[in-house]
Design goal:
mainly alpha, 85% helix
Length: 457
């Protein structure tokens, strides 16, 4: 009853307090998650070398591709669960949980096996050189071998947030960060395992956290728990999960393609050090992006529940608060990149050439960062209420329709600078487009809300 009551509060408590309640644990968890990725890079850069940083940067597209499949299930399932809880359809919510476990098992195993069999050609295609390939391969072999655990870990964390347990999701993420931070220096330096040690630390941390998540979902006193009869795949549930999850899937696939083009462009015009610099720029930006994702994760169950409960005024209020918060965060990232880029780069490496390229990359790449948060919230909002096609369009517009043409046009003219410049320009253009889409749909929601009130009177 306590869990059901906490879910019902999504439609009754003040929206600002609810967003704080859900977003703060998610922000802490996502900040911890970004530090989790950052810690690997710092230990690898300082403990293995500058080329290892470049090798790690080559793995980003493959990591994004893995995340794409994970997000297709995790985000799709958590959104479906939020809406069903808003409709008070608890039986279907439990069936969604069971189907989520099965789908993550199938996709996690399949992706890991296929990519392991084709790993070297994939890494060369992603921009690896003869010098960086050994580092990228050593890291990804271990990550891919544990891919099924990664999928389950992230998937169940998404479900925990949808099931009104944001703090539990936060604890799981923080635990993986702390354990990974302890294991990284032990494996990399003490046991002299190099970049492979960072990969082992990552997978082992996730396995331990996953064990705790499974224990939570086995508790029959919880509103959502593992239950016999829920694991048989149901066509309508799978279609709904994938139908909503296709949006974050497309975002991550597009991110994968974009990083491939960026890595290849930087490798062609600037060499391995330019690729490594992009890895550093990515890690710094990732911290602020992940905080915004935490805001989005806090918004998602509130927006999804109130959309399902037809409370459009509350839904739009949480979107407004989220946009303001996200803009403050990304503006902070912009200020850091413009006024303190050197300490950011120095954190990862002592190599002077790599630091200089990273400083320049940070200043150019994050030039339009203040409006990135606004665009991210709007894209996630449409995803949260099941408007997958709009969310996909907004994501594709930034990465495929704007960024890739800019890379093709600017890189031959301005060389390495052209690769860096294409990113802030695409950010600005896509933010304008997202704002237009939101205004259009706000008018539709407002009209629908007035019609409902008129019918009730």
């Amino acid at each position: 009853m306590e869990n059901r009551q906490s879910t019902l509060e999504l439609g009754t408590r003040p929206v600002g307090k609810l967003l704080m309640q859900y977003a703060v644990p998610a922000i802490i968890a996502m900040t911890a998650s970004s530090l989790y990725n950052m810690v690997d890079s710092i230990f690898i850069g300082q403990g293995v070398g500058a080329l290892a940083i470049s090798g790690l940067a080559i793995t980003f597209p493959l990591m994004n591709l893995s995340a794409a499949f994970g997000a297709a299930i995790g985000v799709g399932a958590s959104t479906c669960i939020s809406v069903k809880l808003g409709q008070k359809d608890y039986k279907t919510a439990e069936n969604i949980l069971g189907n989520t476990v099965v789908l993550n098992t199938i996709i996690g195993l399949t992706f890991g096996i296929v990519t392991l069999l084709l790993l070297d050609p994939i890494l060369f295609f992603f921009g690896a050189s003869e010098q960086t390939l050994p580092y990228a391969r050593d890291y990804m072999v271990i990550i891919l071998a544990g891919n099924i655990f990664t999928h389950h870990y992230f998937g169940l964390n998404a479900v925990l947030r949808a099931a009104s347990k944001p703090k539990a999701a936060m604890y799981a993420t923080i635990f993986t960060v702390v354990l990974n931070t302890i294991l990284d220096p032990l494996f990399i330096w003490v046991l002299d395992m190099g970049i492979r040690g960072a990969a082992y630390a990552t997978i082992l941390s996730q396995i331990v956290a996953l064990t705790w998540q499974i224990k939570l979902f086995r508790n029959k006193n919880e509103m959502l728990h593992f239950q016999k009869g829920t694991y048989r795949l149901r066509g309508n549930i799978v279609r709904n999960i994938i139908g909503i999850g296709i949006s974050p899937f497309a975002m991550n696939v597009c991110a994968c393609l974009v990083v491939i083009f960026i890595n290849n462009g930087l490798s062609h015009y600037g060499g391995d050090m330019a690729v490594g610099a992009y890895g550093i720029v990515n890690k710094v930006a990732f911290i602020f992006v992940m905080i915004v994702m935490g805001i989005n994760q806090g918004m998602q169950p509130i927006a999804g529940y109130n959309y399902g409960a037809l409370q459009f005024d509350r839904m739009m209020k949480v979107v407004k608060y989220s946009m303001i918060s996200a803009t403050v965060i990304t503006t902070s990232g912009f200020l850091l990149s413009q006024f303190a880029p050197y300490p950011c780069a120095r954190l990862f490496t002592t190599d002077r050439e790599l630091i200089d390229i990273s400083v320049k990359g940070l200043r150019i790449t994050l030039a339009a960062f203040p409006i990135v948060g606004f665009q991210m919230v709007i894209t996630n909002f449409f995803q949260s209420i099941g408007k997958a096609k709009i969310s996909i369009f907004l994501s594709l517009s930034r990465q495929m329709l704007i960024l890739l043409p800019l890379l093709a046009i600017l890189s031959p003219i301005f060389k390495t600078d052209g690769v860096w410049m294409s990113m802030p320009i695409s950010d600005a253009a896509s933010a304008v487009l997202a704002g237009v889409m939101l205004v259009i749909y706000m008018k539709k929601f407002s009209l629908q809300h007035k019609t409902m009130k008129h019918e009730q009177e």
